[in-house]
Hints:
The complex is a heterodimer of chains A (250) and B (324). Chain A has 250 residues and is an alpha/beta fold. The radius of gyration of chain A is 18 Å and the shape is globular. Chain A has helices at 24-33, 50-55, 57-65, 78-106, 117-133, 152-166, 200-206, 215-239, 245-248, and strands spanning 6-14, 36-44, 67-74, 135-143, 173-180, 188-194. Chain A is 49% helix and 20% strand. The longest helix of chain A is centred in the middle third of the chain and has 29 residues, at 78-106. Chain A has a six-stranded mixed sheet, sandwiched between helices. Mean pLDDT of chain A is 79; it is low at 239-250. In chain B, a hairpin with a 4-residue loop joins strand 9 and strand 10. Chain B folds into two domains: 6-105, Phosphorylase Kinase, domain 1, CATH 3.30.200.20; 109-271, Transferase(Phosphotransferase) domain 1 (Transferase(Phosphotransferase), domain 1). In chain B, the strands form three sheets. In chain B, strands 1-2-3-4-6-5 form a six-stranded antiparallel sheet, with helices on one face. A three-stranded antiparallel sheet of chain B has the order 7-9-10. Chain B has helices at 61-76, 112-117, 122-140, 198-213, 224-233, 242-249, 256-271, 280-323, and strands spanning 19-21, 28-37, 41-48, 51-58, 86-94, 97-105, 109-110, 143-144, 153-156, 161-164, 171-172. Chain B is α+β, with helices and mostly antiparallel strands and 324 residues long. The radius of gyration of chain B is 26 Å and the shape is globular. Classes of the chains: A alpha/beta (250), B alpha+beta (324). At the A-B interface, helix 3, strand 3, helix 4, helix 5 and helix 6 of A face helix 1 and strand 5 of B.
Amino acid sequence: MRTKGTLRQILLITDGCSNQGEDPVAMAALANEQGIAVNVIGVLNENAPEYHRQGLKEVEEIAMAGGGISQVVYTKHLAQTVKMVTQKAMAQTIKGVVNAELQQILGSKSTMEDLPPDKRGEVIEVVDEMGETMNLEILVLIDASGSMEDKMLTVQESLLDLSISLNSRIGDNEFSIFAFPGKKTEAEELLSWSSKLDSIGKIFSKLTLGGITPTGPAIKEGIAAFSRKRSSKRRFLADDAPGYTNESSM
Amino acid sequence: MMPQDIRTSPVCNLAVGEEIRGKWSHYRYRIRRRLGYGATGAVYLADSDHGVVALKIGHDQMSITSEVNVLKRFSKVQGKVLGPSLIDVDDWLTRNGTYPFYVMEYLKGETLFDFMKTRSPEWAGILLVQLLTDLHTLHQAGWAFGDLKPDNLLVTGPPFRIRWIDVGGTTIMDRSIKEYTEFYDRGYWGKGTRKAEPSYDLFSAGMVMVNLAYPSRFTKASDPDKQMQAKIAGSPMLKPYASILEKAWNGKYRNAEEMRNELVLLLNAKEKGKTPLKKSRTAIQKPATRQAQKKKQSSFLTETLLVFTFVFIVYLFYMLGQTM
């Protein structure tokens, strides 16, 4: 079993329906096919109208197609949720890997749940261990449509809080942040792959909120960012160049 | 779609008298009442062949199994009883799905807040000493408690002893803390990482104390350091512990024993009346104890004198006997 590897996750934070471009559910399925789990947090205002709540159904569908998990929360609980969803998503992905290995050993259809509690404990220890030591690449997609305006400060704080948690792990972490819609494009890179989120405050203050919600194109852009990263890493390995200049340049 | 809430989950709303039967070991448990619920499931008081037990049931295999792993480890920490002891682990098959559960010893006691309501403030210090003793043992065994807060603690007895009841946050040293609650989390206050290490728990232990003085808690202000200083200075209960709380807040203690020893010294000093704490009651008590001490000292003196005289008389008789 691999104990060191890289987990790739997209974390989408949105407050409603997509209304432009590709179907976000389809794009999430596409990401999942390439080993990237898509997790979604739906943010709800305390006094949100009923039609708004209905719009958040999409949240669940995207996560399901993306092999990730979803959670709908009120704004004030966002910080806790961002961290909880991320950790659960990591665990779920690892569990998927472990289950696949188990099926190879125990025959098809066996999952962790079919093991007696004693054995299950040992497996979970392995899962815990992997969650702690694996490298994590997490790409955050932030809905920057007008209705998110009053939630941006909370989103920013939540991401800082997430980085405190993830940087307390043994494994390496890299974050990248995109907002959609961007100034000129459908999704704009706010932060290129980096292990620190300290500078995130400045990024958010520069952000202008737009009217449309191109969730599908944003997920597609996220997938592209992952593959760019992968290919630059390959180049780096081939060139045997010192440092991670390709990846950390802004 | 509404925000999901653990409280609406079926396992958090089991009926009184409902029978839970294990899939693997077939033991039966009859629900008496719910004791509480947390992030991962609900805890019930239940009747079983082993007597009255506490039963925790959830829907997430991962988190329930992790907790079981921790409880198992606790039983291996030599000679010390730390958490409740683990009795049984199983799954419950229902029409709606399979729910993992585990059964542990039922600890009967009062919550920290209820206990402190009827008792004098120095008990807060004594409970903290007990807590630090247990934390030190746990840390020595290679674990951090993680989610340290009054909800996860209980005072059993008499003799009164602080015990922890929920070990869901317990994490292997140097990993990232599994579960935490903002108010007791140093990451939230901008005072450090969420890495499992002794100073993480000691920060939380300090905040448990602060919480006893401010039961409704408070949220972070723009300058948490100043805010905390003001909160400590503003509470007659916390003020005597200011130096210790500040060191815990700033992560200055290397281990739980160091903090515990300082606290014990402080509590001893208080008993001698060096730091007058409360008004009327102690003010009357203190001179009384001092008089008692004086009395003890003078009786010691007379005792010594008597012994000396006795020995001298015996010696005289001996000398007399020799000369005769």
